[in-house]
Amino acid sequence: MNVAQPEVGDESLKAKIVDHLKPLVLDHDLINRLRQAFETEVENGLEHGLKKSSIQMENTYIYELLDGSENGKVLALDLGGTNFRVIQLTLENGRITNEILDYYSVRDELRHGPGTDLFDFLAESIKDFCVKHSVDLSVPISLGFTFSFPMIQHALDVGILVNWTKSFSCPGVIGEDAVKLLNNSLNKIGLENVKVVAILNDATGTLVAGVHDYPDTGISVLLSTGSNGAYLEKVQRIKRWESGSKEGLEYVVVDPEWGAFGDNGSIDFIKTEWDRILDDNSLLPKSFTFEKYYAGKYMGELVRIVLRSLFEKEILTECPEEIKITDSISTLDASKVSQDILDGKDTNTKQILERLGCPVNQVMISVLQYIVELLTERASVLVAVPMAFFLDRIDRPMTTIAASGSMYKHHPSLKDKITSKIEMMTDKKFKFGLSDDGSGRGAGLVAAIAQRLAAKKK
Fold this sequence. Notes:
This protein is an alpha/beta fold. The protein contains 14 helices and 13 strands. It has helices at 11-20, 28-48, 108-112, 115-132, 178-188, 202-213, 273-280, 299-312, 331-343, 347-356, 362-394, 406-410, 414-425, 441-457, and strands spanning 58-59, 72-79, 83-92, 95-105, 141-147, 151-155, 158-161, 194-200, 217-223, 227-234, 251-255, 398-404, 429-434. The strands form 3 sheets. Strands 1-11-10-9-12-13 form a 6-stranded mixed β-sheet. The chain has a 5-stranded mixed β-sheet with strand order 4-3-2-5-8. It is globular, with a radius of gyration of 23 Å.
């Protein structure tokens, strides 16, 4: 990490600030330890799952990608929060030629009521979509189900819910197969020809959608409020395989769920006092450890906690009340400061300081920009570690990393910083490719792949 020191004028003050914030700097030795810890967790996860690793390394059972022979219409259901989508894709020779989608909302009582009511509502929404768009229900149609909640997969079409998140708490679903529940609800209302053939999460969908746009895609990364990714693993390395034979198969998509990397304490050597404060005050302490270091849900609050600590240590004086308020600095604020740093300006930084009630002077401008740049640099290193590791593991001449998420798309400098850090960690060739809507298009494409594989078995 190479971050210019703050231009505060006073050399003594500068030294105090730099020394105080030194724990945010990841040097070469720490980065190597982080990479080694990640490799250990990956290997333990592949063999034992969460029993012996903080990284789940879930086998998605997607062992083939698009091959250009996929044709016809498929449906997708994308459930990741209070709003969800139903989508129809039309494919010709493996390419999407038409896409129709509608948005639906899950009412509060359905998010907390019996699970059967939720899945019945999802089925009714699919029926509403099919009627509205004249979907031919006289013939079988496959549906891919993006279910962005923690689950364990036993097959491409078997996903057992581990825990509800994102304000859902429906009883009767944890420990059950979400595919079976949705298929039962579809059958109840006469949609026997609509069959859920695949369940996946948005990281997996992003990888598959990436293959549609960039055929050499081998990795995906999501940088949004949270963080995760997926990659192509050699089948011979997969220890947990419960669905059919893996003989003759080359690779399979694996979903690491790396947002939880370090939940077992394996990377506590990079944890600062500020990370601990953020974690202790989070909704789920001691979980989602890795993404709390950098993801969009937390970056702005980390800036605030670090800035406040300079006042608490009396390195800076007279802390404004606003800085004592949780989330008074947003991740969007941090991005605006990063834009100033990139442009060599301070317009956004001044506006944010003024709103916070801070003195708008060179010291405060430099301090806030220094904190944001340190955290952004750290974020780029942390994201680059799994990317470089998987590039080495895949070991191809060239790999596209399908990327999505608000931080990837909108942060002014993060993508370029991640790219440069990956280049320092591996000599494998790669490029990033924007893969929007992996959770929607990806689910439909996986359904088309599942349909092709099922036909091949007949």
